[in-house]
Amino acid sequence: MPIKIPDQLPAAAVLGEENIFVMSESRAVTQNIRPLRVLILNLMPKKIETEIQLLRMLSNTPLQVDVDLLRIDDRDSRNTPRAHLENFYNDFEQVRSNNYDGMIITGAPLGLVEFEDVVYWQRIGEIIRWSHEHVTSTLFLCWAVQAALKVLYGMDKQTHGEKLSGVYRHQRLVDHEPLLRGFDDEFVAPHSRYAAFDGDLIRAHTDLQIFAESEEAGVYLAATRDGRQVFVTGHPEYDALTLDQEYRRDLDAGLAPSVPVNYYPDDNPANPPRATWRSHGHLLFSNWLNYYVYQLTSYRLEDIGKVFTYDHKN
Predict the structure, then answer these.
(1) Per the residue annotation, which of 49, 213, 237, 246 is the catalytic one?
(2) pTM recorded for the entire structure
(3) 8 A C-beta contact, residue 175 and residue 182
(4) Which of 132, 170, 191, 235 is catalytic?
């Protein structure tokens, strides 16, 4: 089954060329089924690129998924045309009264910024708390994990002295977790962050179940016991060239970045990189949609949130 997105969204053409089944809004109105509703809060600067990456991941499922896009505020973007934001994105006030089966909150380039200095910190906290009443399962990516740990558990951010960038090997820690169904015992995933996610600290300060971890990158995948919040500290949605683009951007900015580890063949940036994490990335998103969203959500959207109890520390 397809994902349903606006007819003119740029991602529609890109995914169509990749032979990914995308249903236009005009066609979807003839479907007599109850699709999943997923809200994406896109905090990344290059919003169109991130849209394509996430929609590609959401398409790998037999479920029909209706996607709404959300922006954190109405400030101008240096990387995304205003017309695109006005045509395809909602402000929070436009969706505040809605319920959603699933929500994704992306990362953001804020790894070295203190929470209280983030211009939209109060709003992101409001949205995270709102999601617990209006969303069946929320998936946090990279910086959004830091934000959620602070909002939900009061955990202060931890940072590395140097940016963690590259493709790291992880070990699955549980055998029969649906979120990891189909995963190898060891798998790789890309990271691009200053944030540190120490397993001992997370175990000491939260009730999260940790499903996958890396000796170099720390905790990769964790979730609440009710499946309402899923934490992914890396970027399984990244394209093959995303880390390369970030590396060369930092080079051009004079930041002297380290070469992303385990990414370029022979660790040589002159060699074109290849994605080695794509299969596990697709599995993660399809498992989340199936087991943590579709299997748990209420058939009636208006009932979402009524059967859950808010039990995290604020």
Answers:
(1) 237
(2) 0.88
(3) no
(4) 235
